[in-house]
Amino acid sequence: MPASSREWPLWEIFVRSRQGLSHKHVGSLRAVDAEMAIQNARDVYTRRREGESIWVVEASHIHASQPESRGPFFDPADDKIYRHPTFYDVPDGVENM
Amino acid sequence: MSDLRDKKGYENWDEAGVARFEALLAAEEKVEPRDWMPDGYRKLLVRQISQHAHSEVVGMLPEGNWLTRAPTLKRKAVLLAKIQDEAGHALYLYSACETLGTTRDETIEALHDGRAKYSSIFNYPTLTWADIGAIGWLVDGAAIVNQVMLCRCSYGPYARAMERICKEESFHQRQGYEIVTKLAQGTPEQKKMAQEALNRWWWPSLMMFGPHDSESTHGNQSTEWKIKRRSNDDLRQHFVDMTVPQAEILGLTVPDPDLKWNEERGHYDFGPIDWDEFKRVLKGGGPVGRERLNARRKAWEDGAWVREAALAHAEKRRARRQAAAAE
């Protein structure tokens, strides 16, 4: 392999399996541009009609929360159990709630 | 946990990281790419996933050999679809491997310069059309047994790739079994062809599960880290129990004089495996092994200008668009 060769950019692929559902991450692939990424995604991830719409996002454009700060970042949700319907007492016999 | 500190594979020790890693494993949850993981865990996964990916790629070669000689157009279309799947499987696996911090090119180079291995099964030649049937039935059948287990492995991206692959792989096994069935029910010559293919592929398929548990070098650590969920011998037994009745239905004979149903164990007993042959094939496997690697290197080198040109073209178009937007 020549030293000058560079890898194609990495793309993350999202597929909507049918109308009414959101796009879901299915995997990644390498492609030189968005057009090629969409075509390759069709061939790689929808060979058996797994989708009817594809999104491609260059992996370097995705920003994510930090796994090591998972605790402090998400813990505001921990002590607010009153956000869940099961927190509330409903008298016996009450229906449709 | 502190007893892990000096353990091999934990050189990158991090108190909080280890605690979380161990908790994930204990809770049967998945480890994801950006989670802390022991160096050894990462290394073991890179080795295993890249070998697996290489096996998918090299596995296309013995089948490609029969594309132009498939007996009917239908068989040719099916074989093409199967080979395309194998390329897809390789891609899922290379992607999973990349999440561990390797680059695609590095991984592929390791195959080409002989540092990385691939499944030794692909160093056997495909002599007749019946071999294509036997590969689907037996080789893909054995792969499915292994891959169903790997759907439960602790590393998220690998497990997800396996789920996808398993869904596609069952078509591979069925089309192979159908090829063998047609031959087994055909003329005496065709039946003989099917039997000979079974004779050729039976033992190599059993060897695909790797050395006996007592001699497996990576087995224990892999099990502790929940990458491997069942032992080699356990998986092999499962495959034999599954496959022997399938051969009987076709009226074919499994080439093992010691093969016998063991009522007490509830499993088939089978004869000893010739591990010397396994080791010989694993070490580069003679003429076919060389041919496989040469074919891969040639494809990679011949495709270099396409990879470079596509990238250059995309960059040129991007620059042109930017210039137009700036006007």
What fold name stands as the CATH topology of the domain at 3-64 in chain A?
A: Ubiquitin-like (UB roll)
CA radius of gyration of chain A is 22 Å
Kindly, what is the distance between the CA atoms of the first and last residues of chain B, rounded to a whole number of angstroms? 63 Å
Structural class of chain B: mainly alpha
Explain how this protein is built.
The complex is a heterodimer of chains A (97) and B (327). By secondary structure, chain A is α+β, with helices and mostly antiparallel strands. Helices cover 18% and strands 21% of the residues of chain A. Chain A has a three-stranded antiparallel beta sheet, with helices on one face. In chain A, a hairpin with a 7-residue loop joins strand 1 and strand 2 (24-30). The radius of gyration of chain A is 22 Å and the shape is elongated. Chain B is mainly α and 327 residues long. Chain B contains twelve helices and two strands. In chain B, strands 1-2 form a two-stranded antiparallel ribbon. In chain B, helix 5 (129-150) packs across helix 9 and helix 6 packs antiparallel against helix 7 (188-207). The longest helix of chain B has 29 residues, at 156-184. Chains A and B meet through strand 2 and helix 1 of A and helix 3, helix 4, helix 6 and helix 12 of B.
